[in-house]
Design a protein that fits this description.
The chain has 165 residues and is mostly helical. Helix content is 71%, strand content 0%. It has 5 helices and no strands. The longest helix has 56 residues. The radius of gyration is 44 Å and the shape is elongated.
């Protein structure tokens, strides 16, 4: 039995050693040929990722700014919607309702085709209500219905002394 194991061991060395030698040196030659391409790829990857490397140096500042922006936007939206909801609830509880201004009959009949009003114009707006009320006052009482008070010029200061003596 020892002769059989000795023959198989010697035959493995005779057959496997040259194959292993060829594979090893073939791999080394391929590695030598591919090395410039690998270095070129590493350099291009380094150049591509260079801007991100600079951005990472400002990571703490950018995180702070992003958190501030998100907090400001979310709290601003929250305040806007809660305040508009509260105003709407208070108006309803006080019985205040603001009807939309009526369009002239010519627009409704279709005789005069004006520009279409979008949904934002049809909604209630305090500015529109104020402008509609002030235009009604001007139509009722004329343009010069209010008096403009002007100060008289005086050459005296607050103590009553003349300024230009």
């Amino acid at each position: 039995m020892s002769w059989i194991s000795a023959i198989t061991t010697v035959s493995q060395w005779i057959l496997l050693y040259p194959v292993t030698f060829l594979i090893y040196y073939g791999y080394r030659i391929l590695q030598l040929l591919v090395t410039p391409l690998v270095k070129l790829g590493q350099f291009s990857l380094h150049c591509t990722l260079w801007p991100f490397n600079i951005i990472l140096k400002f990571e703490a500042f950018l995180t702070f700014v992003l958190a501030a922006i998100l907090t400001g936007v979310s709290l601003g939206l929250l305040l806007y919607y809660t305040s508009s909801f509260i105003v709407e609830i208070l108006n309803q509880s006080l019985g205040l309702s603001y009807p939309l201004p009526r369009q002239p009959e010519a627009y409704q009949a279709g005789a005069i085709k004006g520009p279409k009003r979008n949904a934002l114009e049809r909604r209630y707006s305090p500015l529109n209500e104020y402008l509609a009320g002030s235009s009604r006052q001007i139509q009722k009482s004329g343009l010069l219905s209010s008096t403009i008070l002007e100060e008289e010029e005086s050459n005296q200061d607050s103590n009553g002394n003349d300024l230009y003596d």
